[in-house]
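Re: the pair you flagged

First of the two:
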Amino acid sequence: MFAQQRHEAIVRKLERDKSIKASELMELFGVSFETIRRDLEYLEGEGLLKRVHGGAISNRLDYSREIPLTVRESAYRKQKAELAEIACRYVTEGQSIALDVSTTNTEFAHALKAKFERLTIITNSLPIANALVTMPHYTIVLIGGVIHNAEQSVIGDLAEQFAQRFHPDLFFMSMSGVTLAEGITDYGIGEIQVKKTMLRCAKRTIALADSSKFDCVSLTKICGCGDVERFVTDSGIDRGLVERYARSGIEIVYE
């Protein structure tokens, strides 16, 4: 099979599956890892995909469906790290903060560790709790309930009841999509219910979303855009979109 034929087949598979493993491509085409690496480098240079550890993802993930945690962890890492640094500006030493489960908030948790010595963190995310447990002066409140294994999160009625006990200074809410018309949306019904509880109980809420999630609609609505204080994203956000949201009274911070 010629390189052009492989490239066309890879693009078609990505359009269908949204993510692909290098090992799958090696088996599919009967070629070496180096050949697949060169194929993916070429296609990334053409703007047709984004390489991640172990394979590639579509340049624009389909946030209307549930995307595996392993794919989300590799996607838009640079953007998540950038917005996490920006979000730290809204935190002060000693605050109580709620973080719902997401790869974005896991990145944010690592940024918090580097900047703050004393915080109270309330979360339903096992990776976030694990990332922060090494901080001796952090109080970590892990919400109790049923563990959703695939998402490494705690969900269910018990989790919602547990979350209701706390009224944090700030809730940093993640999402899968946001539009002016549909508001903030996400998939994962159990996670959404815990997220809504945190939103209702927190004194303030800031939404975190990398630039790929704007003008995308996911499965279920969490709240309207006006129900959060502001959005924090990365510098890749379209400036025309920022102005359009601003005309509707919605602040997007990206630098």
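Second of the two:
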Amino acid sequence: MKKVLVLIVFMSSMSMMAQTKSELLKHFEAYYQQMKSQGDIQGVINAMTHLNVLEPSQQRLDTLAYIYVSEGRNLEALNTIGIDNNATDSNINTEVKALALKALNQPKRALVFYEVLFKKQPNAYLAYEIADLKIQTNDLAGAKASVDYGLSNVKEGMKKAYYETQRPYEVPMKAALTYLKALVVYNMNQNDNLDQAIGLIDESIKLSPNFNLANLTKEALLAKKNPKKE
């Protein structure tokens, strides 16, 4: 009789726990939707975290990491999903790792994930990012190949955003890729290729006169070409 009583209590307890979990899931799902409708990003993060604790899901972790990286919280994004390159990773998971590692100035690590994305869906946007990272890691031959691919596959209307000024601005992707081509050419031989690099930067500025970064780089190269006499 005592064993039967213990079993009844145990089963009742399990039923109550299941009911409580179900109620909590409904609560946080409703809370998530409410925070989303209000545009409360921290509230969305809190709700998603609670939902994942109650019912763990890789999809939820990927979404949570994407929210973090969208808010510039790159370490938190990587702490959520890690930095390993897994064959089973979703596209969102891979993109988050690429974006976060690049933002954290880890070009070699970021490059791994950008190349995974490029293999799945090659395009001029990813070619630009890969070329930029390869310039940073001094893989100039690889950077040139990526720039050439980008220039051969760039489409009308593609834009690249830059953030070095107080107000972010956009330039045509062709201008952005031409600018990277100038950097590759210059870094291959900083003395012999100086004029060619300046010419390419002029091409990028012609495509987009508001290209602040290209204008600044041109000024720096011209100063090297024509140093002021003291």
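Residues 118 and 126 are 6 Å apart (CA to CA).

-B.
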